Amino acid sequence: MKELKEVIRLVVLEKRDIVLSIVFGFLAGMSAVGLFGASGYLISRAALIPPLYALTVLIAFLKLFGFARALGRYAERYFSHRATFTILSNLRLAFYKKLEPHAPRIFQKYRSGDLLSRIVGDVESLQNFFLRVYYPPVVLVIIFLGTIVFTSIFSISVAIVLLLGLVVTGLLIPAWYTVKQRKLASRLRHARGELSTEAAEWLYGFRDLKIYQQLDDRKEKLQQSSDDYIREDERDSRQVLSSHSWNTFATLLVSWIVTGLGAILVAEGDLNGLFLAMLVMISLTVFENAAPMAVLPSHLDDSKRASERLFSIVEEEDRGSATYNLDGELAPDIQVSNVSYRFPDEEREALTGVTVSIPAGSKTAIVGASGSGKSTLLQLFMKFQLPSSGELMVNGMDMKNLSEESIWANSNVVLQENHYFYGTIRENLQLAGEDLSDEEVELVLNEVGLEFDLDQPVFEKGENLSGGERQRLSIARAFLKGKRLWLLDEPTSSVDALTERMIFDHLYERASQDTVVLISHRLSGLEKMDQIIVMAEGKVAEAGSYDELMQKQGYFYEMKQIEKNIFST
Ligand SMILES: Nc1ncnc2c1ncn2[C@@H]1O[C@H](COP(=O)(O)OP(=O)(O)OP(=O)(O)O)[C@@H](O)[C@H]1O
């Protein structure tokens, strides 16, 4: 049950509703037993033409049991469903709180469809844990015990038959199907994950698939995943039906045994014949409560796997204690010593033995060939990942101990791909701060060379903006945030050279006292930087000021010559 530890913790929080569900479940179950038992007795008694008052009292009891049964069932459903919805909402919240700090790393690791299926599908699956796994066995056992104690007043042997019936329907059959279910359900969940991944790939990649005429292939794959899922789902449903059938068979068998045994006991004079119909009716009714046990194995297995899958996303990596916050008042000092990093499931290291020093308030450019590890290094500065080995210190503190939230809150970040929300230009810029005035926003838009009306609409993912406009909007967001650490990954790759120069002039002005790390694809305009780090194949090839690197005539110098030749031809 360790897979369900977190879910059980959240379930137990709803103590009040759990107790009320059990109390009213017990009331409903016992009232049903009372109702049918009393009707059996009434029929037998009526056949003997008793005085009218005896019948009137029995009929009054019947009405009372009928009323109590309906009330009990309603209240049980009300409290159990209320508990379920509260547990689900707590579960979503608890999961989201765990997910949030790991979000950037997780988005890189999981395909979006798989992640979505886990967040939506697995949380939904867990709604059955309380409703169909956690409390029904408790209600079943106490109703049976109550009924067995009552039955034993009339016949110990009938009570023993009921007890055996409880063991078979409440324990043996569910246990047998729990074992069988284990093999089946993992295939169903795998098929569901595959289907949602394929569906997401199909939707997100529709345009490119169409252009490259690969739609038919993908459609076939999607169809295949859908068929696999339907087949596994049918297999799962057959299993549930079979469990149901065996449970009902055992239930009816017990009623037959009670009838036969009762008849023998009456014939031998060990049981008053008046109570035979009552005992048979009781045995038929009490097993109604065993019906939910037929679906328990599939829901138990489903809940275990769902919980395991859900929390495995956020529990698999020790991210350090992260108890300290980055001081937002100071321009940070970053020291990287002998850092290596390998992406999960990758054989090759993205960074190998990287040592760099980025003093507080300095301006650093990182350049190098595509795939040389520039963005990976920047990701380590943002604590999207932790180094596989080596030391990364910020303001003298190990990165492991700094909370990622404080790093993100205190840095102005422009990544290669940034998100733009459906809304207006103003709303997209207010991501940097809700209280920003229109004047501040307009000033910054001017500095990045955009002449937008603040109420101009922005479509989903910024689809009505050009690549350069989107980048400049991101830079404007970073300008508006105004923190002391700037982490910029090719922020102007789609912007023309003149506008780029203007943007950098404003950047240097705004960040004159701040720590700036800029990944640049162009080698021009880096003269103003305090140092340039040249990366090659995950290592630092060379580092120094612009003049130093040019004098050295090494890797940077060569790159510069190549760039010059390209632009002069
Ligand atoms: N999420 C990832 N999973 C696995 N490998 C990755 C991932 N992201 C990057 N890599 C690999 O790590 C290496 C360094 O990539 P990185 O993005 O840091 O290079 P870069 O220098 O920033 O390249 P570019 O200039 O093209 O952006 C590459 O070999 C790349 O394939």
From TrEMBL:
Origin superkingdom: Bacteria
Keyword check for Transmembrane helix: yes
GO cellular component terms listed in the entry, alphabetical order: plasma membrane
Subcellular location: Cell membrane
Keyword Disulfide bond: no
Domain ABC transporter: 334-562
Chief subcellular location: membrane
GO terms for MF: ABC-type oligopeptide transporter activity; ATP binding; ATP hydrolysis activity
Membrane topology recorded in Swiss-Prot or TrEMBL: Multi-pass membrane protein
UniProt KW keywords: ATP-binding, Membrane, Nucleotide-binding, Transmembrane, Transmembrane helix
Family matches, as InterPro entries: AAA+_ATPase, ABC1_TM_dom, ABC1_TM_sf, ABC_CydC/D, ABC_transporter-like_ATP-bd, ABC_transporter-like_CS, P-loop_NTPase, Type_1_exporter
NCBIfam families xref list: CydC
Name this protein carries in UniProt: Thiol reductant ABC exporter subunit CydC
Annotated source species: Halobacillus litoralis
